[in-house]
Amino acid sequence: MTQNIRTKLGKLQQGGITSREVDELNAIFTPLDFKQRIATLYKYFNQSEVLFTSSFGTKSVFLIHLMHQIRPDHPIYFIDTTYHFQETLAYKRQLIDRYGLKVVDIQPDAIQNELTREESWWKDHPKMCCTINKVVPLEPIVEKHEVWISGLMGYQTPFRAHLRVFEKQGDILKFHPLVDIDEGEFLFHISKYNLPPHPLEAKGYGSVGCENCTVKGKGREGRWVGSEKTECGLHPNYFNKKKN
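Above: the chain's sequence. Below: its structure in token form.
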């Protein structure tokens, strides 16, 4: 059965997957627990076809730890926007040393990045700032993969609450193995395995992104305060602008 479904999926980068096939994958994966979902993913896709990214934020260690248990040699892509808190960069180094992570840093175009800095785009143009410093740098990496693992959890925001385990996002298949766990399960896993917290959590930061757009707050309340923006653009349907 696995081989038949894998054959039907074809090359996602060519837009070959259909809504029916996404539904079929969800029917198979949704009943599984989050560890089983991750392990089973590699029965359908080669590791080279699977993209794993991390922001090394306050919730990132959960998925990083799971991947370390199941696929310890899987590379992790990190978007270095040049606006990260020093605490985030230190946390990243801590997790690399602890788990022997294979992290690949990605940076935005230097000229465009400097323009966002000179004109403080995060104030008046936060969406474009995220596009230049996060979305565009990752785009060529996304195009080389078929499925993208994301650590989004449904309890975090209304947008995330409506996601399924698999969602087609433009030309790539997004995989959300943690989407239906609740906060209690998350905290239990953190406690059980004594996973190190992000250093800013103790200072009141529930979620951490770029320094200019993050303040203290519960959950994601401290992100893009004063604007309607709730996501950086990597997870909503940005890639739906491409052929779909």
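Confidence is low (pLDDT under 50) at residues 237-244.
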